[in-house]
Specification:
Chain lengths: 392, 295
């Protein structure tokens, strides 16, 4: 699960990381009040940033500077009216505009290949790290945290020297690197990124200026499997960034992703669900969704899955593909018969059930006059033909 | 010899008295797997599966009393990492963790402890393994198999069944079928399994079933290009139509050196001379075209 910048910054602060103060505003007036506070505290300008879960906010006009409270209110109004990559902007983050001396990248991620937490750093900060990886992969330095001992100081120091952050900022960098790993562990994150990590110039209170290393932006992705033990993090879910159907699917324990096609898919198992989508495409159709009803699904879950699929008006045909193992084919067949008896929209359905209790399932389906298929390839072809017949 | 499990397997099932545990233990016993013990804390002295499987409080007792040498875990996610550590602590060297939904960070120290003990962990979030006609550990339906000489390794559950069924229907039997698990952090990778199959005198050909995410298929393909020339192989990759970015942020792909898409994986496999099936039903003909002959 992705969370918004402001929430990610809060999680960093919880681990003691240096993040300059910010406020979240939901209206232009709130943005104005926040800007007044930062300007009164000595800021020359404030930055107003859209809080949406997509990259490229700046290019989309979602990040703007303001030199006065009036201007902050105006740019906040503009940003709050934006829709960025289909997501409405409902909140903005307001903070004092930083006087940046130099920008870096620092990220901690869960690396599948090494089965370790990997900490990456680059002197190329403030730009998309994917772009750095493409253009100049040598500019990204990485170390692996030990799975039992964590990140040793010497490795963090090594990263600092590699990106030219020795000297006065060395200790701060080491502490921030530890903080990223601590954030991962505390919140079960699989990605914690600070981009940019920046040396900023701030007034020292004596008329001079001092330089500090601070986290200016934050991006955190949480491990969905760990959310049940972090109810406070579940509350950070951005419902705007997901389909309304997602919440229902989650409540039912169904994995569901809506797509653009016309053939609804109901499958048990993630790999088989993806394969079913692939074969629909291969047969000349477009899948309307990814849907995994999970192992051992019973009739009520099948009915819920059917509701999710039928809620999409683009669906012209439904393909049900069940390879029974833990899941019993007759249970699914009963669920399908029940679901069809109560649904208010009649959509052609092709059902293929094999494995555990498939014979009983076949009998039930034939009795209820479902279109069945012997193989997955055949089922996909029949579903595509049925969808075309509806469209014609 | 098949790999990982076989006639010498003496299995203990963690969580044998639970709903899933008991159901699948019964299936394993009926398939002929030597299930010598079950373990559920505080249920020591009871039996499971109609009195056929003695239950112990600890894995150490199952090892001591029944000579258990392989463990299969059906414990819920919150307790599964501890179950793996208990098996390691009892000296078990072959551990299958079927449990799904274990937080990924919980697995990092566990995988390291398993490695340091010289044990092997399959999974988590895996369907287990079958040595057709001999033994099965986990939840793969026994009925889909046919004994033979093709090794099957997969990240998936039901997709594996689909591919294996297609092979069996085409008259192609299997030496071992193994699901390594769909989680980001797993104990045994494609590469590990390819190495085991390469050294197995009963495996003549290999089927690899992957999916989007990570770079394990690419690593396996690179190794196969160098070490498995002349071994008939077929592959399948699920997720050609999957929308990007739904499973994993791009930073993960950066350090893995790829983007984790189906197209990348298919290109890597084909560059290694391994044909990738467009549907699981094409696997048998690809194996035969690659030179595989039964018997």
């Amino acid at each position: 699960m992705k969370i918004q910048e402001a929430d990610a910054k809060s999680l960093l602060v919880d681990q003691g990381l240096p993040v300059p103060a910010w406020e979240v505003a939901r209206t232009p007036a709130e943005a104005r009040t926040a800007a007044e506070r930062f300007l009164a505290a000595g800021a020359d300008r404030v930055v107003v940033k859209a809080q949406v879960l997509v990259g490229g906010r700046g290019k989309a006009g979602g990040v703007k500077l303001a030199g006065s409270a009036d201007e902050a209110e105006r740019v906040a109004r503009e940003i709050l009216a934006l829709t960025i990559k289909d997501l409405p902007v409902r909140k903005v983050l307001v903070a004092a505009a930083a006087d940046i001396v130099k920008e870096f990248y620092l990220g901690a991620i869960l690396d599948r290949a090494s089965r370790r937490i990997v900490v990456m750093a680059s002197s190329e900060g403030g730009v998309e790290i994917e772009e750095v990886a493409r253009v100049d992969p040598g500019a990204i330095h990485r170390v692996e945290a030990h799975p039992l001992l964590g990140l040793p100081d010497w490795q963090a120091r090594g990263l600092a020297f590699a990106i030219g952050l020795g000297g006065v900022h060395l200790r701060a960098f080491v502490s921030i690197a530890h903080g990223l790993v601590a954030t991962m562990v505390a919140d079960d994150a699989d990605l914690v990124e600070v981009n940019p990590l920046a040396i900023v110039r701030e007034p020292d209170g004596n008329g001079g200026a001092a330089e500090h290393l601070v986290c200016l932006d934050a991006k955190i992705t949480l491990d969905d499997s760990a959310l049940p033990r972090h109810p406070e993090l579940e509350a950070l879910r951005d419902l705007d960034s997901e389909d309304p159907a997602d919440a229902e699917a989650r409540a039912q324990g169904i994995s569901f992703i809506r797509l653009d096609g016309s053939i609804g898919c109901m499958v048990n198992g993630a790999g088989l669900a993806m394969t079913t989508m692939d074969l629909v495409k291969r047969a000349g159709g477009e899948p309307a969704n990814f849907l995994d009803i999970g192992g051992g699904a019973r009739a009520d879950k099948v009915a819920a899955a059917m509701r999710l699929i039928l809620a999409d008006p683009k669906v012209r045909a439904i393909l049900v593909n069940i390879f029974g193992g833990i899941t019993r084919g007759d249970e699914v067949a009963r669920g399908l018969v029940e679901a069809r008896s109560v649904q208010d929209r009649d959509v052609p359905m092709v059902v293929r059930i094999v494995g555990t209790n498939a014979e009983e399932a076949g009998r039930l389906l034939t009795e209820a006059r479902f279109e069945t298929a012997a193989s997955l390839d055949q089922a996909a072809a029949k579903a595509v033909a049925a969808a075309r017949a509806v469209e014609a | 010899m098949s790999i990982l499990i076989g006639r010498d397997t003496r299995l203990v099932v963690h969580g044998v008295t639970g709903r899933e545990g008991e159901f699948h233990t019964r299936q394993m016993v009926e398939y002929g797997t030597p299930v010598v013990a079950g373990m559920t804390p505080n249920k020591g002295g009871q039996t499971a599966v109609d009195g056929r499987v003695p239950v112990f409080d600890t894995i150490a007792e199952a090892v001591e009393r029944e000579g258990a040498n392989t463990s299969c875990i059906f414990v819920p996610a919150a307790g599964a990492p501890d179950s793996i550590l208990e098996a390691v602590g009892a000296g078990i060297k072959m551990i299958f963790c079927i449990t799904e939904g274990i937080p990924a960070l919980d697995m990092l120290p566990v995988v390291e402890v398993v490695r340091q003990a010289g044990a092997r962990l399959i999974g988590p979030n895996c369907p287990g393994a079958t040595s057709p006609g001999r033994a099965k550990v986990g939840i793969i339906p026994g009925s889909i198999h046919r004994p033979g000489r093709v090794g099957v390794v997969s990240r998936s559950g039901t997709l594996t069944y689909e591919a294996v069924q297609a092979m069996t229907d085409a008259g192609i039997g299997q030496s071992t079928c193994l699901g390594i698990g769909g989680d980001p952090i797993i104990g045994t990778t494609f590469l590990d399994v390819l190495q085991l199959f390469a050294a197995d005198p009963e495996t003549d050909a290999i089927v690899l079933i992957g999916e989007i995410g990570g770079s394990a298929e690419e690593e396996a393909a690179a190794w196969a290009a160098d070490h498995l020339q002349g071994v008939p192989m077929a592959a399948f990759i699920a997720g050609r139509t999957a929308p990007e970015g739904k499973r994993m942020g791009h930073a993960g792909a950066i350090i893995s050196g790829g983007t984790g898409t189906a197209a990348d994986k298919i290109a890597a496999l084909e560059a290694a001379g391994i044909r990738v099936a467009g549907s699981p039903t094409e696997i048998p003909e690809i194996l035969r075209a690659a030179g595989f002959r039964e018997g």
